[in-house]
Amino acid sequence: MEYIALVQAYTALGLGIIIGLGAIGACIGIGIMGSKFLESAARQPELIPTLQGRMFLLAGLIDAAFLIGVAIAMFFAFANPLLARLEG
Amino acid sequence: MAGSSTEYIPHHLTHLKVGEGFWSLHVDTLVMTAILGIAFLWIFWSAARKATTGVPGRFQAFIELVVEFVDGQIKEVFHGDRSFLAPLALTIFVLVIFMNTMDLIPIDIPGMVAGTAGAHYWRVLPTADANTTFAMSLTVLVLVILYSFKAKGAGGYMHELFGSPFGSHPLLWIPNFALNVVELLSKPVSLAMRLFGNMYAGELVFMLIALLGFAWAGALADGNIFGFAVGFVGQVLLTAGWAIFHVLIILLQAFIFMVLTIVYISMAHEHH
Predict the structure, then answer these.
(1) B81, B164, B191, B227: which sits with the fewest CB atoms below 10 Å from its CB?
(2) Which residues of A, range 11-70, sit inside 8 Å of B by Cβ?
(3) Where does A14-78 sit in CATH, by number?
(4) Euclidean distance between CA atoms B102 and B94, whole angstroms
């Protein structure tokens, strides 16, 4: 029983680290990109349509690693394979 | 519907399978992908069949909008013959949008419909299955390799594989090739994992919000009107909010998959 609690505790800590660190990285990335986009849009407003498409593309790319992390974390939260091995 | 909240999410994460272990097929994924593929082909075919050179109707104008959008994206990146790449990109874009849009169907409805046909599990979102995304990205990998051969010839491509980052000294062939293999394999993995991760996480958030249903149903059974009201309104607002945000992700991920496919294939055309 205490082994199950141990696995759950470490899994919960791991989930927090996965989502938290991923969120830090993604937010810094989006922040830098957004600020650069606004800067360049202010400098050259005629480039906004071109830049906007690329900004969304990059936003998806930056977000992807974080969301993959979230998906893995969610997977471990609801169907923990480590715990299943202990129980089975 | 699963019995309790602890069973609810694992139930919704189980595929309808045929076979055991490695040699199993996810029937729900295959059927949904086939239906959506046929829907895509039928919609675009019927638009092309009824197309007029005169004033187009709304339907034709919309299809033309999509086609021209994709074509414009390719023109920005790829300067060459678009007769194969443009239909490929259009297919990927629209099919991924169609598959991702299945996430907006309320998550219990597909299970109920499948339940009437006797199926116990039914995951309606094909792109939340890594098999689908890897199938698409490995197809892209095969096309990248084929186009590399086509654009550079077998000798030219071999020269690039064995001699490109460091130089074509025979001692450097092995490190060059190792790096190129890593580069080649990282493309489909990142492409597939990006789409899969986004859709899987999105689907799970919908499921988590749906768990509120158990909370307000329990509060109603206890006669707790306040708890019922908060839970019910909360579920409606959260689902609506996430669904609206998710529309962005759906289109964005399809767009990214398409653009990266174009970029990879046009990179295969470049000479070093």
Answers:
(1) B81
(2) 56-57, 59-61, 63-64, 67-70
(3) 1.20.20.10
(4) 13
**Mean pLDDT over each residue of chain B, to the nearest integer:** 86
Beta-bridge partner residues of B117: none
What is the C-alpha separation between B196 and B133, in angstroms, rounded? 6
DSSP 3-state assignment of B26? strand
CB–CB of B204/B9 below 8 Å? Answer: yes
Per-residue confidence at B95, pLDDT binned at 50, 70, 90? Answer: very high
User: Please, which residues have CB within 8 angstroms of residue B82's CB and are 6 or more apart in sequence?
Assistant: B71, B74, B75
pLDDT tens figures, B157-188: 888 888 877 777 888 888 888 888 988 898 89
- 124-153 in chain B: CB under 8 A from chain A: none
Contacts of A61 in chain B (CB under 8 A): 194, 256
CA distance B266 to A50: 20
Contact criterion met (CB < 8 Å) for B201 and A70: yes
Q: Does residue A18 have an active-site annotation?
A: no
Task: Among A10-14, A43-47, A81-85, name the one with the lowest average pLDDT.
Answer: A81-85
Catalytic residue check, B194: yes
Measured in angstroms, the CA of A37 and the nearest CA of chain B are apart by 18
pTM, to two decimals: 0.84
Give residue-wise pLDDT tens across range B14-47: 888 887 777 888 888 899 999 999 999 999 999 8
Q: How many CB atoms lie within 10 A of CB B168?
A: 12
Cα–Cα distance for residue pair B239/B245, rounded to 1 Å: 10
Give helix then strand counts, H and E, for chain B: 9, 2
Give domain limits for chain A: 14-78
